[in-house]
Amino acid sequence: MSDSEATAAEGPEVQDASPAEMPDSSSPDNATDVAPTRKARRRPEVAPAAEAEERPKAEEQPPKASSESTVAQGGWGYWGSWGKSILSTATATVATVGQGLTQAIEKAETSLGIPSPTELSAQVEEEEKQQGEAGSETDKAAADGSTAVGGAMGMLSSLTSVVQSTGKTVITGGLDALEFIGKKTMDVIAEGDPGFKKTKGLMIRNSTLSQVLREAKEREELQTAETESSDSEKKVVAHYGMLFDEFQGLSHLEALEILSRESESKVKSVLTTLSGDELVQLREELEDIKDSFSLVEFDDEEVDERKDGDGNEFERELTKALEGLNVSTTADKLSKACKSVNGQISDMTQPGKEEEESEEVEKKTLSVEEVHAAAIRSLAELTARSIELFHKLAEMILFSNGRTEAGVLSQLTVVLCKEISLLSKKFTSCLTTAGSNEKGDVLNPLITGVFLEASNSASYIQDAFQLLMPILEISHIQRRAESTEQ
Amino acid sequence: MAYAYLFKYIIIGDTGVGKSCLLLQFTDKRFQPVHDLTIGVEFGARMITIDGKQIKLQIWDTAGQESFRSITRSYYRGAAGALLVYDITRRDTFNHLTTWLEDARQHSNSNMVIMLIGNKSDLESRREVKKEEGEAFAREHGLIFMETSAKTASNVEEAFINTAKEIYEKIQEGVFDINNEANGIKIGPQHPTTNSTLTGSQGGQQAGGGCC
């Protein structure tokens, strides 16, 4: 069964979850285009967990499977299948409408009729009853109902209310869910992109992250053009992809991908020239390098919000991580960008408080749209600068051929992701403050948007980190060759 | 800011000939006499109009230093245009052109449009390479030629835009396969129609045609 069929087959499942509506998934052109690009998006080999579980699942599912039978068959819980069906439907939506990332999610929110958290938890209980003999996976899913599912809910429909009532814990949970969904969304966009076909066969990898991003950005541009013509009164609209490109994030990513790809093929060709013990030994050494790339935990649980009000802490950590790597100019750019973002945030929080105290007149400080735009812009800039930093690191590693430890790079990645997470939290709390008088349906999509882009930012940074692996490998091989020559 | 085409350019040539300054003049319309050495590659982008069509130039400004050569070569591939720059006040930068040209031809696609640029034309008193020499070299190797000054902005626009015109003509003549991104050309997002679903499927058909 082809992937496109699987996608279509899952349509009814969503309706099961919520009979409200179905997006128009009847686009034959796109449906045929989807199949070959399913696996187009390159993901680092080290993070296959989500996909490994996802893909076979999609292929296994018979058409018209009910959610119950799906769960029983897959045997890994309600959350999994539910998440899958939402995502598949999002695929259809994206493919059909061809909208950008943010739009896709908003579309998902407004049109998919995601069940409310209460409905959903009720369903979870029902599920639990229905599969009494289900394994520990399911039990866990049910037990986690309020966190796992609630977190996902927050992302798709009502994050704010959850945030307001339960605070940060849920945000973190929501961010994890977002990260998952954000990554899937990129896949989904890749799927819906017919342009991938034409590069097929020309490159070692059929698609690259920068291509995916470029496509997403173009959709946003298109969307903007449409919005401008049809709805001129629409206020500040922030487009992450366009901003990311404006800060040259895409170009740096593309260049980094080129270096990574070339290094990878060089490593391969070196390996073919070796044999016997020599080969075994080199393979082992390369394995070590690979390991240090796969064992990294990008845990953002530890982020302490009070710390680092002005970005100094970040700068300190950044400097520490980059010691001796010779990329000070680029690192400075990143530090400066980070400081200016922190400056913006404190400007947003300080005057707001004063005004509330003085009088309760609806004197405007910053609208929620403006805060949102600032947040998206900041995330796009910091991510672009981070990618630039990785690109420069790659060049310096290849250039100097000095010894660079993967551990240093992973530490850097952790620092960057932590900062992104921290800033997104600060921005959403600004949003919540600025939007205290707004209705949920105004505020929620904005908050969701910030979290979504923050999670995407973290994904891009982590992907860029992974792109450094072949570069360290070839650098290792070259250093090795030099030392034997001498 | 939708564009009809995106062209990838590379700027190559010896260190210190003014590659980054040309780019800065073109993208920001300013001149910076002291410039940091470029590491690897830096980027610039600008929108131009040719034949009433918006074209986005995505410019890869490479490091001129010999020691970076093995890295910068990696970036040649997939460029639609190249600006090969020498300094009219330094004969050696002109003498190295052959090496640069061989390098460029070897590592990029054969249809790449190459513009030879003799930069620093404002420094007439220190000129070491006659304009005629540049013209002759260009003629011999099938390049377009211009003398520019990143400082005074003389001919800078023209250099970038004429290169784009040449690429655009090649597209019209069918020399470039625009569906092949290895040629450094990308078709912009489809123009919005009344129905975005329609736009999506049009894109699908078009790409489908150019596939395999």
UniProtKB/TrEMBL annotation, chain A:
Organism: Seriola dumerili
Keywords: Phosphoprotein
Transmembrane segments: none
Protein name: Family with sequence similarity 114 member A2
Record InterPro entries: DUF719
Highest taxon listed in the record's lineage: Eukaryota
Comp. bias regions, Basic and acidic residues: 52-62
The keyword Phosphoprotein belongs to this UniProt entry's keyword annotation: yes
Region (Disordered): 1-75, 109-147, 344-364
UniProt similarity note: Belongs to the FAM114 family.
UniProtKB/TrEMBL annotation, chain B:
UniProt entry keywords in alphabetical sequence: ER-Golgi transport, Golgi apparatus, GTP-binding, Lipoprotein, Membrane, Nucleotide-binding, Prenylation, Protein transport, Transport
Highest taxon of the lineage: Eukaryota
InterPro entries, alphabetized: P-loop_NTPase, Rab_GTPases_membrane_traffic, Small_GTP-bd, Small_GTPase
Region of interest: Disordered: 191-212
Classification via SMART domains: RAB (SM00175), RAN (SM00176), RAS (SM00173), RHO (SM00174)
One of the Pfam families matching this protein, by short name: Ras
Ranges of compositional bias, category Gly residues: 201-212
Gene Ontology terms: cellular component: acrosomal vesicle; endoplasmic reticulum membrane; Golgi membrane
Mode of membrane association: Lipid-anchor
GO biological process, one term: vesicle-mediated transport
Predominant subcellular localization, coarse grouping: cytoplasm
Compartment(s) of residence: Cytoplasmic vesicle, Secretory vesicle, Acrosome; Endoplasmic reticulum membrane; Golgi apparatus membrane
UniProt GO MF annotations: GTP binding; GTPase activity
NCBIfam families: small_GTP
Family stated for the protein in its record: Belongs to the small GTPase superfamily. Rab family.
Alphabetical list of PANTHER family matching this protein: DRAB11-RELATED
Protein name: Ras-related protein Rab-2A
Taxon lineage: Eukaryota, Metazoa, Chordata, Craniata, Vertebrata
